[in-house]
Design goal:
By secondary structure, the protein is mainly α. The longest helix has 41 residues.
């Protein structure tokens, strides 16, 4: 019985490794396109950052959706061609591609926090999402296996921009750059 469990664990790890590899590759290659935007943000004031966000947030979201869709539809062909022994990693890779939807906007929010020298939000963003992800791993991996890992990663990637926008919104209200929504 132990050997069977060990074999399933090794197969699940291989499946996860194949699935997560696509997300890591897209993130590494996408950062090359993102750097010019990041350079623009560093030279702007808080007000200019807000204006940039207001005028381009839809473009960032559409870019994330486009990345997600491209990966969602190309992963089955790529895995069947390069990794024919792991067809079970297709669905996990497609689920992980959902992470890409918020990737561009998440990077923008985080860079705005860093460039505006907001220390508390930076610390919270550095600690809370990874701790929540770790908690999700402990709770969901024993029950859901590889899908517990995927769930933890997706929750972490959703939580990070939510925390960022919350702190940025408070900063903008304090600096009277926007009015508080009641």
């Amino acid at each position: 019985m132990y050997k069977l469990d060990r074999k399933k664990q090794v197969e699940a790890l291989a499946t996860y490794s194949v699935a997560i590899g696509f997300i890591v590759a897209v993130q590494k290659n996408f950062i090359v396109l993102y750097k010019p935007i990041s350079v623009k943000l560093i030279s702007q004031s808080k007000k200019q950052n807000l204006q940039t966000l207001k005028s381009h947030w839809i473009k960032f979201m559409l870019l994330g959706i486009m990345l997600c869709l491209i990966l969602w539809f190309s992963v089955p062909m790529i895995i069947n061609f390069f990794f024919p022994l792991y067809p079970e990693s297709i669905y996990p890779a497609q689920l992980l591609s959902l992470i890409l939807i918020l990737l561009p906007i998440s990077w923008i929010f985080h860079d705005m926090i860093v460039y505006q020298k907001l220390k508390t939000p930076n610390i919270v963003i550095s600690l809370v999402p990874p701790l929540v992800k770790l908690f999700c791993f402990f709770v969901f991996v024993p029950k859901l296996g590889i899908y517990g890992l995927i769930f933890g990663l997706i929750i972490e990637r959703i939580l990070s921009p939510l925390i960022s926008i919350t702190f940025l919104y408070d900063t903008w209200v304090k600096n009277k750059l926007i009015n508080r929504v009641s």
